[in-house]
Amino acid sequence: MLLHRHLHSSASTHKSILIALSLHLQSSNSTSILFCQQTTMASILQRCFSLLVYLTIIQVCLGSSNVADIVKLDLYYESLCPSCSNFITNKLPIIFINGIIDIVDLHLFPWGNAKLASNNSFTCQHGPDECLLNTVEACAINTLPAVYQILFIECVETLVYKGKYTQWETCFKKLSLDPKAVTDCYKGEEGKKLELKYAALTSALKPPHEYVPWVVVAGKPLYENYEDFISYVCKAYKGPLPSACKEQSLASAQREKTNHVLRACYAEQTTELSFLMKIWSFLTSWMV
User: Greater confidence, 268 or 3?
Assistant: First the structure.
């Protein structure tokens, strides 16, 4: 996903994004009061994150850091790995809240520990449902406007985190999106081609990934320090540091982390992790 590059591509792209934001905000305005009265705290926080993404993208469109100084941030993941959904739902949104997205070129690679067969078919660590959602998210990256890519994936991964990933299609309605482009993609040959592309990009990693989430900042993997990715972005950035890179701001961001401790999904633990995923889904669906 080339979120930052998409936003800097052209004035016409900026205008299209701003128009899309305006239409979306207008369509949701009439139900905002009812929404605030009836939704759970989790839903409110998700809507607030969406609004922060919109505002951040508007800020980027109007003017941001020198593109030459932008730090590449890569996330290699798989859709049903609990630690991946936790990272996308609870860790990655921090950069939209504190403004770090202004200095980041964010790319997502939905493949993870999937395995390719000789006939270009593939199997996924957490079963066919994960293959489906990996392809869905790859299609979202390929077909949705930049403003909606991260919102859609965050929505799907929030459902994964809650053990409700079979409801992923509700994210189209939540974001007022036409599902046709993504649906045609994941049900057709284009979806498979995208997954094969992400398979090649993941297998080309040097050093190879050992587990997911596998976070790479400016070409360097963070290994077990992936949750501290913001400080690595700040160290890699060569321009004037944003306020979020100051020690106090970083400490504040770290306090925002959740208390959930989840194991990364290692490449050679398919059977064990599939069983753990079923337990995780049962527990989270029971608690929510």
Answer: 268
